[in-house]
Write a structure and sequence with these properties.
CATH superfamily: CoaB-like
Distance between the termini: 9 Å
Bound molecules: cytidine-5'-monophosphate
Largest sheet: 8 strands, mixed
Number of strands: 12
Shape: globular
Helix content: 10-25%
Length: about 220
């Protein structure tokens, strides 16, 4: 199968020297890319700015902003079988980018933000590839993950519980629950991101084959 996997954060520029971003390290997405390559799949890895060596065998498309990630995904999914949106894409971006560095002043300062384009929501509803979203939640994990599965029109939603600060973002370990469209859910208990990635790739392939019956 051909996988398109997104990983890492995006950066939304404020002025020439500042940006809005998040703590995503890219480790989970890179581990999924490596696991998919090990299972003999073709991988295009659309990566935000991270400090990780590229997995051998992946085609890397490097991006910085959510708009660049949107364009790269749009291009890469044209002939793919599976899209895994593991990246922590910014939900908001500055309404405008200052051309010159914004000067410090001794008064309150507020930045106007507008919603960034939601890459998952912008995918065509009728498509012939399997879509996996990620939901990083600090509370009511199941409720939020199931809601995102529906509103973002995904085939599968992988929920990270961020309430435990020792796992998840930036860590080498994770624990996830996978929610599928048929209402089924499966927990993968705390393990290295490498082990979680292998289990995810297996589950994604099995479910994708059921959905993409004309292809496989
Ligand atoms: O809404 P939230 O950001 O929590 O949703 C997370 C999921 O949506 C992830 O799979 C992420 O890659 C995707 N996403 C997106 N476009 C955005 C923000 C998030 O596709 N602008």
């Amino acid at each position: 199968m051909k996988f398109v996997i997104t990983a890492g954060p995006t950066r939304e520029p404020i002025d020439p020297v500042r940006f809005l971003s998040n703590r995503s390290s890219g480790k989970m997405g890179y581990a999924i890319a490596s696991a998919a390559i090990e299972a003999n799949h073709e991988v295009v890895l659309v990566s935000g700015p991270v400090n990780l060596p590229p997995p051998t065998g992946a085609k890397i498309v490097s991006v910085i902003t959510s708009d660049e990630m949107h364009a790269a995904v749009d291009e890469a999914v044209r002939d793919c079988d599976v899209l895994v949106m593991c990246a922590a894409v910014s939900d908001y971006k500055p309404a405008s980018v200052a051309e010159q560095k914004i000067k410090k002043r001794d008064e309150k300062f507020s930045l106007e933000l507008i919603p960034a384009r939601d890459i998952l929501k912008s995918l065509p509803r009728s498509r012939n590839f399997f879509v996996v979203g990620f939901a990083a939640e600090t509370n009511d994990v199941e409720e939020h993950a199931r809601a995102k599965l529906a509103t973002k029109n995904c085939d599968m939603m992988v929920a990270n519980d961020l309430s435990d600060p020792n796992i998840g973002m930036e860590s080498d370990e994770n624990a996830v629950t996978i929610f599928s469209r048929d209402g089924e859910s499966e927990k993968i208990l705390r393990a290295s991101k490498k082990i979680i990635a292998c289990a995810l790739v297996k589950k994604i392939c099995a479910n994708a084959k059921k959905v993409l019956t004309k292809k496989f």
